[in-house]
Design goal:
The N and C termini lie far apart (about 85 Å). The relative contact order is 0.06. The protein has one domain. By secondary structure, it is mainly α. The longest helix has about 55 residues. It contains one helix and no strands.
Length: about 60
């Protein structure tokens, strides 16, 4: 009975550790996605400015 309880507690600890790890990974992926979106927006803006300058130069 005591061994079963210890085994259950160990499994619970492992499950909690796994869920924390998964949550951290999801948070990191979310932050990376936001950075990538920001970079895309900045690149698009730079491209538009460069295109506009090229058109003015013609």
């Amino acid at each position: 009975m005591l061994k079963n309880r210890q085994r259950t507690q160990e499994q619970t600890k492992k499950t909690i550790a796994r869920s924390i790890h998964t949550e951290q990974n999801l948070t990191i992926k979310s932050v990376l996605r936001q950075i990538a979106e920001k970079n895309c927006k900045e690149e698009a803006l730079i491209y538009r400015i460069a295109s506009s300058d090229t058109m003015k130069a013609m």
